[in-house]
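User: Can you predict the 3D structure of AIDA protein? Sequence below.
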Amino acid sequence: PGTLLPRLPSEPGMTLLTINIEKIGLKDAGQCIDPYITVSVKDLNGIDLTPVQDTPVALRKEDMYVHFNVDIEIQKHIEKLTKGAAIFFEFKHYKPKKRFTSTKCFAFMEMDEIKPGAIVIELYKKPTDFKRKKLQLLTKKPLYLHLHQTLHKE
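Assistant: Sure. Here are the predicted structure tokens for AIDA protein:
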């Protein structure tokens, strides 16, 4: 069912972020079994700054997209995130032949990309590089993770 956490209590002058994960574009979207996304917020050393959350399994697969339409509440006020922090999205799916869940690709959003509205971010090849040193795009095709951000400020 996922491990989504509720929104934090608001604090005066502080901003909370809700990210709606709309969909992810993949050339073999229809073949992914029980796909979900793990969301984490990490500093430049790859250390978790908030609890890691998993989305429920995707709602549907259609053409080249896996649709989620799920809200993630980032578990820290934006102002309290360290410089250089990033929000990571790891796309995972089950591999019956190997009997385990594998990370297919990942995407991330840096602090300067936090602003209200829609955003599309590029997908990178696994393994997930939380330190963001050796990034390789997953594909040359224009396939992205589609998100929508909502900022809550008191």
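Residues 35 and 93 are 4 Å apart (CA to CA). The chain has a mean pLDDT of 95.
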